Amino acid sequence: MATIVAFGIQPGQAESGMGGTILKLTEAAHQLTIIDLTNGSLLNNQQSEFLKKEAIKSSRILGIDERITLDYQYFELENNREIRAEISEIYKNTLPDIIFIPYPAEENPEIKIAAGICHTSLVYLQQYNPAFLKSKVFYYFAAPLNYFQKPAFVMDISREIEMKVEALKCYESQFGKNIQNSPLFENILHLNRYYGMLIGKKFGESFICKDPLEIKNIEFAL
């Protein structure tokens, strides 16, 4: 059983980018924690409380063990010592085998900041504690923006897509009461169809890693 941490800028982002993969991991009895780097609030605390309730519903659907939502507003996110200290404590408490981070696309400065916080905090710990050198880092596409990066691998989520949609339905504040009418939802679904097509499946979620992946048996790649 692996210990896994998945980061998102706000509640709902990890589900949008890798909700099907999260379900695969929890169903395989891996211990998974989601860290929302902000509460998603733009102007008021009422919005953040609503998002937290939506996140609880979504977490139950996907079988997430624990979810931590930090008390920062969306546009307050900065790669500073305070938040890096919080992330370092989370790393120390969880000792993750695998870390999922939003891919730092140039088109979205908030995602770049989020990725920088998560990566910098880990690199600092690796310098002083060899235990963290074993942590594998994977980047997922956090939003269907106008960019393309060749994935290192694509996860088949054809079986999990219905439950991913159910989890996203929890976020009425982002997709509205009828998710089928949401352009954002349609973009996510189109992206999952596209990556599924690349591997000959109906739906897929793509990931990037900077370090080479070890494959112990070539049959694993078939």
List the helices and strands and how they pair.
Elements: E1 3-8, H1 13-27, E2 31-36, H2 45-62, E3 66-69, H3 81-94, E4 98-102, H4 109-128, E5 136-140, E6 153-156, H5 161-169, H6 172-175, H7 183-198, E7 204-208
Parallel strand pairs: 1-2, 1-4, 2-3, 4-5
Antiparallel strand pairs: 5-7, 6-7
Helix pairs in contact: 1-5, 2-5, 3-4
Structure write-up:
- The mean pLDDT is 88.
- The chain contains seven helices and seven strands; from the N terminus they run E-H-E-H-E-H-E-H-E-E-H-H-H-E.
- The protein has a seven-stranded mixed beta sheet, with helices on both faces.
- The protein is 43% helix and 16% strand.
- Strand 2, helix 2 and strand 3 form a beta-alpha-beta unit.
- It starts with a strand and ends in a 14-residue tail after the last strand.
- It has one domain (3-211): Rossmann fold (3-Layer(aba) Sandwich).
- With 222 residues, it is of the alpha/beta class.
- The chain is globular.
Can you tell me the CATH topology?
Rossmann fold
Give the oligomeric state of the chains in this entry, treating copies of one chain as homo and distinct chains as hetero. single chain
Give the helix level as a range of percent.
40-55%
What's the tally of helices? 7
The H-level CATH homologous superfamily, spelled out, is: LmbE-like
**What is the number of strand segments?**
7
Low-confidence stretches: none
Termini separation: 23 Å
CATH uppermost class = Alpha Beta
CATH architecture assignment name: 3-Layer(aba) Sandwich
Shape label? globular
Mean pLDDT: 88
Strand content: 15-25%
Structural class based on helices, strands and sheet pairing? alpha/beta
- Biggest sheet character: 7 strands, mixed
